[in-house]
Prior knowledge:
This protein has helices at about 25-35, 65, 70-75, 85-95, 105-115, 210-220, 245-255, and strands at about 10-15, 40-45, 60, 95-100, 120, 125, 155-165, 170, 175, 175-190, 190-200, 235-240, 260-265. By secondary structure, the chain is of the alpha+beta class. It has a single domain, classed as Aminopeptidase. The model has no long low-confidence stretch (mean pLDDT about 95). Bound molecules: zinc ion. Keywords: Plasmid.
Amino acid sequence: METGELNSIPLTHAVSMHTDDQCRCKHSVESYAGKYLKQLINLNLRDAKSEVSEQNIPAVFDFEKYGSLEGYNEYLSSVQKGNWRRQINRAAREGYYCAFFDRSSRVPDIHLVNTSTAVRAQGEMSSHYFKSIEELGGYPTARFDFKAPKCNRHWDIWLGVFQPSEGYRQGDVVVGSRLFAYAHLRRLGDLFIYALFLGHYDYLKDGVMQLLHSYVVESIYKKSFPFLGGDNSPLLVYGGYKHGGIGRETWKRRAGFEPATVLASE
Ligand SMILES: [Zn+2]
């Protein structure tokens, strides 16, 4: 059985953004929260407070809910009678793999993904996705490998779904693989955010988005990198639960998100 609509009482989660840690991120975290998070997340910070309206209740992936990666995989085996899980396996079998990457080395591929369709499940794509390669930062002039963020608790990084492709280039730079989907993932203490989450339209049928999300979930459960570590159970937020129409909402529910109120404090 898949989980249906939740009852009227939404869950509430409290998270710490750890801005009082021994790091220099307090100002940038609070300014990002004040600008971009306050529509989705209830803030209780010295300089920024907010209360989210009903229609902006976020889609929240609660790592504690599934307990462990095994628990999440067990949940996935029940989604679409196991079809979600099979999509992930098929994508992996077809040679797709996930990796963190340096955005500046992949601007042409990001542009290809962004412009792969004018209309998606949630409707017409915003003009933001049709910026030119130059507007996105231009063709790379050298190959930069992914560098781990300076602070393990506060960062924004890019990760993507790739396939090996011999001689494949970005501008004049040989990168040897092609990007098919990406997530711009942000961390603010115990809160992870999909700031962007998008795949090339022609390859969605291959399960690339399912693969990408499962990689994120797995990496966070396993704390695969120092910058994914932490003592508290984190949350992952993917926009408003109701944002983007019924197709997007169904995707989020199957992926393990649910509507919940989030209260973020220092
Ligand atoms: Zn920090």
